[in-house]
Amino acid sequence: MKTARVLCLDGTHRMNPIVFHLFTIIMHHPTTGSGYPIAFLISEFKRSSTLKRWLDFLKNENENLIPDIFMIDDAGEEIKAIEESFLDSSIFLYYFYVLHSWCRRLGHKHGANIDPNKAIVWQDL
After folding, report:
1. Are the beta carbons of 70 and 4 closer than 8 angstroms?
2. From what superkingdom does this record's organism come (predicted)?
């Protein structure tokens, strides 16, 4: 983990009948661009305090774990936990979730009275 400058954190939510959550940290290889999982958390809870305890544990057990960037989806709990555990790390959202959010917002506003600027953005998406 010494060379892990970019880590990806993703959670699966309610993917099983017991309603446990699976969180995975994926290490991004700086040369190949591929990634592989390095840590897992299975939890009944999806709270930022639970994620923070896990991230603090990983940080304390691996003193070389000092990522510059965390890539995440659009989950507030994950953002809060990373901000509290890794103060110097930047948080980036996956492009898919940013695009999805834009489309959802523009689609909601998309109607008969279309602002020309919104129409241009809508077409670019």
Report:
1. no
2. Eukaryota
